[in-house]
Amino acid sequence: MYSWKSIADWILENIDDVTDKKLQKLMYFAYAWYLVFFNESGDEIDNRLFEGQFEAWVHGPVLPELYREVKRFHGNKIGADYFESNREDNFNPEVLDLLKQVKDVYGKYDGNELESITHQEDPWIDAREGCRSNEICKNQISDKAMFDYYVRRLDNE
What we know:
It is a single chain. With 157 residues, the chain is mainly α. Helix content is 51%, strand content 4%. It is built from 7 helices and 2 strands. A two-stranded antiparallel sheet has the order 1-2. The longest helix is centred in the N-terminal third of the chain and has 19 residues, at 20-38.
């Protein structure tokens, strides 16, 4: 398991024009796809990319620890060296491949577009059940919900 800061650092160093919102969503997609590729089932999740739990906030999935760290950017670009002191160069090749795939698939979108994508997906929708669209909601998005949803997406492609 890696630190969330080392994953955020990789994203900032390798993807252009990353804002606080874009970083949150890229972290979410990396985490969710890691669950799919490094676990056998949603009922027995033993492998996680990093420690933390995403919550279903108004603007999509949010890792609260990351939010507290980057909220001051308010939609502005975050520098590539922001988390440099937490850098880990020892990503195994499979994790590096996953991060590159996240970059290739999602890195071209801005934060608002990534928010829109997550708003159409079951894990965020289901976690917000009972919350109005503009209501503060700190319901957790379960690892099982992410695994089950994204593994179905794989099967449909």
